[in-house]
Description:
Layout: H1 2-7, E1 15-17, E2 22-30, E3 33-40, E4 43-49, H2 54-69, H3 74-79, E5 92-94, E6 102-104, H4 110-123, E7 132-137, H5 146-156, E8 159-164, H6 172-179
Parallel strand pairs: 1-2, 7-8
Antiparallel strand pairs: 2-3, 3-4, 5-6
Helix pairs in contact: 4-5, 5-6
Amino acid sequence: MAGAAAKAGAEVRTFGIGAGDWRVAKFMLTPSGATLELETPAGAASVVSHLAGEVNILNLLAALTAGARARRSICDLVEFIPRLRPVPGRFQSVDAGQPFTVIVDYAHTDDALANLTALARQMTCKPAGGVITLFGCGGRPRPHQAAEDGLAAGKGSDFVVATSDNPRTEEPLAILAEIEPG
């Protein structure tokens, strides 16, 4: 696509982790975000972000690349990264003094659960750490199948705790029975 765009006369800028015009050369994920080593045509910078995961690193790179196209300096662009905060309930770290990481996320589909557990796995310290997932499915109407949620949680976790979340008029154990095969 980049080649076709360039051939058509469009300005092409690339970004990525480890590759691209705008790239993160090194990074470390933490429960509360990431530390990034940026390399760009406009210069290098070390940045702390409160947005967790590789997907947010890519989102930041896209924003930086667009910001540079709008003629913003690298200093102006990276200055605001530490001020960015995650949306409440989306990969939100909870620190109550416990000796382990707790993350809350409103993962409401099997795809969201798969992505969430993959991100948690990226931050897990082996051999001591693991991913424990606690999730629930509500009563009808459910926009997706509970078994698919169970499958996604099971594939991405070392241990899963399933609950019925707001069962409405359904029997909570029936919801759990739908989750369990997954």
